[in-house]
From TrEMBL:
Keyword field: Glycosyltransferase, Golgi apparatus, Membrane, Transferase, Transmembrane
Pathway: Protein modification; protein glycosylation
Enzyme class: transferase
Protein name according to UniProt: Fucosyltransferase
């Protein structure tokens, strides 16, 4: 009898403990994470999203103020001090800040003639004063550069042969899967491995825009997307995410705003000039700025191919949700984008975006880089952009001797 009584007491105690644990678990006191709800490690190093009630917000300045009081620039700089160190270098970007030995320049003035139709903006035409006293004329006019040291081709291939005394042949391909023409003396692309690199960052991709940015963010519609080149893979990727998030799609692809060019109907203040017919790019930054997030999907996912799709979103004051280059973090400021490839599923990504949209402090963390001056490798990205291409190309031409270079 004594043995049976002891067994019954043990069983009763065990059942009471199990019952207590069940109560604690369902009351939320104990929290066991699931494999599907965890935030990717890339985002664990900064603010974790709150587990308490959400705090929807519209005022971006109010979010900044909350972030300043709870986190602040000193902590952010300390967290990202390594990425803000100038000694950090990446193979993804050429070292345009590197010292140059002036003795390697063979000519003191270089004239570059841009040939044929090209998207390169006209306001790049100028006479530049470069390092080591080198002067650089970049022009589309053969009147100004009647005897150029180099001729730049982009939409057409260079001539088959270069004879002695002919200008160097420069070929540029900034599209995904860049390909040399096989006829050039110098090759320009977005990739660091080529002769001269030109990234999509910088100011020349933002000409003639309305730069009025809104400090008020939409709460009901979270994501901006605009694409009119409906590539099947990109369209499917966008559809799989956007079906889970409130969004506006302004382009031809997956349009849900009643037609193309509707942005000015939503945001008339974004008109650049009311006396001129609007162009789709006039209002781009201004319209984007009303949204907390901008979906940015590259045409092709390939190394170092980081285009204006991402930099437009950054410059508009939105947080990009990015799908593209696997080494994108080499080109952008620390904690500035949401890398969609780091999430296990679209559902997981959408849940993260929704939670972030309702947490002003965590959201403001994505803007801290610009407010605290923590650029990381982004300053190298800007320095290697199209803005600085003339001097960097002229240096490369001068090193070869321009028209004095021996033909192959």
């Amino acid at each position: 009898m004594q043995f049976k009584l002891k067994s019954i007491n043990s069983l009763a105690i065990t059942m009471m403990l199990v019952f207590a644990l069940v109560i604690l678990f369902f009351s939320g006191f104990l929290d066991f994470p699931t494999a599907h709800s965890s935030i990717p490690s890339a985002y664990n190093k900064s603010l974790l999203l709150p587990k308490s009630a959400s705090h929807p917000f519209k005022d971006l300045f109010g979010a900044y103020k909350s972030w300043d009081s709870q986190v602040g620039c000193n902590k952010f700089r300390h967290t990202h001090q390594e990425s803000n160190n100038d000694s950090v270098s990446f193979s993804s970007l050429q070292d345009v800040f590197g010292e140059i030995k002036c003795s390697v320049l063979k000519i003191k003035h270089v004239a570059v003639l841009v040939k044929g139709w090209t998207w390169v903006p006209d306001n790049l035409d100028n006479l530049y004063s470069c390092r080591c006293g080198l002067s650089c004329l970049w022009t589309k006019s053969d009147v100004l550069a009647d005897k150029p040291d180099a001729v730049l081709f982009e939409t057409t291939t260079p001539p088959l042969m270069r004879k002695s005394g002919d200008p160097l042949r420069v070929y540029m391909d900034l599209e995904a899967g860049r390909k040399r023409s096989g006829l050039e003396d110098l090759f320009i692309s977005y990739h660091a491995k080529d002769d001269v690199q030109a990234t999509y960052a910088g100011g020349l991709f933002h000409n003639n825009r309305n730069y009025q940015l809104s400090s008020s963010k939409n709460n009901d519609v979270l994501v901006y997307w605009s694409s009119s080149r409906c590539l099947p893979k990109r369209n499917q990727l966008a559809k799989s995410l956007l079906r889970l998030l409130p969004h506006h799609s302004f382009g031809k692809c997956l349009n849900n705003v009643g037609g193309r060019n509707m942005a000015l109907s939503f945001y008339p203040e974004c008109a650049k000039d009311p006396n001129e017919p609007p162009k789709w790019w006039d209002h781009l930054h201004c319209a984007m700025s009303h949204y907390k997030f901008v979906l940015a999907i590259e045409n092709t996912e390939t190394e170092s191919y980081v285009t204006e799709k991402l930099f437009y979103a950054l410059d508009s004051g939105a947080v990009p949700i990015y799908f593209g280059a696997p080494n994108v973090w080499d080109f952008v400021p620390p904690h500035s984008i949401i890398d969609g490839s780091k999430f296990g599923s679209m559902e997981e990504l959408a849940s993260y975006v929704k939670a972030l949209a309702n947490d002003p402090v965590a959201y403001a963390e994505y803007h801290a880089w610009r407010r605290c001056g923590v650029l990381g490798n982004y300053h190298r990205t800007r320095a290697a952009s199209l803005d600085t291409l003339p001097c960097r190309l002229c240096e490369a031409v001068s090193k070869k001797g321009g028209i004095n270079a021996k033909p192959f």
